[in-house]
Amino acid sequence: MTDFAEPFLLRLKRCADLGAAEEKAVRYLVRDIRRLPADQDLKAHGQATDLVHVVLDGLACRAKLLPDGRRQIVAFLIPGDPCDLQVFLLSRMDHTLFTLAPSTVAVVPRAEIEALLAEYPLLQRAFWVSTLFDEAVLREWLLNIGRRDAYERIAHLLCELFLRHKLVNRVNGQSFQLPLTQAQIADALSLSAVYVNRTLQRLRAAGVLEIGQGRVSILKPDELDAIAGFDDDYLHLNGGSVRAAPLLGHSA
Amino acid sequence: MTDFAEPFLLRLKRCADLGAAEEKAVRYLVRDIRRLPADQDLKAHGQATDLVHVVLDGLACRAKLLPDGRRQIVAFLIPGDPCDLQVFLLSRMDHTLFTLAPSTVAVVPRAEIEALLAEYPLLQRAFWVSTLFDEAVLREWLLNIGRRDAYERIAHLLCELFLRHKLVNRVNGQSFQLPLTQAQIADALSLSAVYVNRTLQRLRAAGVLEIGQGRVSILKPDELDAIAGFDDDYLHLNGGSVRAAPLLGHSA
DNA sequence: CGCTGCGTTGAGCCGACTCAAAGGTTGTGG
DNA sequence: CCACAACCTTTGAGTCGGCTCAACGCAGCG
Prior knowledge:
Two copies of one chain form a homodimer.
Chain A: H1 6-15, H2 20-29, E1 33-36, E2 41-43, E3 51-57, E4 60-65, E5 71-77, E6 96-99, E7 103-109, H3 110-119, H4 121-147, H5 150-167, E8 171-172, E9 175-177, H6 182-189, H7 193-205, E10 209-212, E11 215-218, H8 221-228, H9 241-244
Antiparallel strand pairs in A: 1-7, 2-6, 3-7, 4-5, 4-6, 8-9, 9-11, 10-11
Helix pairs in contact in A: 1-4, 3-4, 5-7, 5-8, 6-7
The first copy, chain A, binds a DNA duplex (30 and 30 nucleotides) through residues 149-150, 181-183, 191-195, 197-198, 201, 212-213.
């Protein structure tokens, strides 16, 4: 039997140094588990609901739309990622949340999370840190789209997704599941689908990776990193808990 | 005598429904006030310090750099904006923070803020909401750079800055102070300085705005909004406090 | 009064786009 | 189990938004 809560716990443990009590509480949150098809809205722009979602398996994203149909994916949500912690802090969604592939998602009522936060201050910290991690990724994406060319840009995205999948035990050897179409990659990287195709061919030709059928294999990680100019700084792999601990009297 | 804390309080009040006690506490935080010249680092990439900065006057930014010198400004920090609340949650800076113009900045030791957060849970909420606001702006920037052309993009940035300045009482009629060079605008919008120049000329020629000598005047706000496709959703002007209140037993 | 930094202008170029159409692959229903 | 539909990937050809390089004007300032 699968441990559905595992990726979520792995993510939270990178955010704060959770104890057994907190872990148990988080496990208890993950009860209402739903399987959703691809292209299913979790929450639409402007909506205000009382539900928080956590991706447990599959792939979802945040996207913003322009009235004329131009679309920008502003985040990929992989297993372990909470989607809408802002639900009880901001009144309305400023973007849309939807699945990109068939996915498994945990649904948690806002009230339940709030009760938990009140009981476990360390968890509140962890959730705050979690949103700060998201923010750091957004800044890197801005740099990626703003200042890297198509070749570097795609390489960088794949470096990031590889590492993030690794952090939640979703990497097998050198490859991981990535059920994205080239058009969706284009939407995230602000390129056209045609150009993504041509650029992926260059990366394949360079022998650094294989991609297709919903899977990516990194054949030459070092070269891919070099192409991307990848620096994992912004993922804060050393964790955020170190400095948060003192306040809560949670000594190391 | 100037009330230095005013813009910071205005910002926090949009984040949560602060009471008199919280307001007093925040005012007390803002004691160590420093005047800095332009191009002064507040905190460099990779650094870990125990100081939190709040811009009280002037202009600062967050920027990320590529090894070869390409630069992306990922946020403008205007009066009232806290710069580095993440200091006690993340161990290292993933970007650099520096002034773009001579500025007045409040410097607060981390420990002092932590003590405050422990004493006033509502303030902790307010700070969390504040980081969520920043995140929402980042998402909009991603859309801006990713999917809008240079003309729309510059218009959008100026709409945003106009509104944000308005929220902290820094708008006089139709104009506000904006001590940015065209090269800095280019760094933020991912354009070349030359092209920013040509595009600003188009905006001036269209009669929608005046810009120069560190000031911007919006002559035709509606037209500028239309050009930019501006929707203030993402600034969450209705505030974030509404939904946060119940948890803390702070009824409206 | 000569730097130095910023704004402006011109000319040529290229990375990435659009449009269009042809192969593959996957899923589905008869 | 095949045939079709729908979607995705791939290829070609032509175009253009925004870039680079280079020079010049102008203002502030030491």
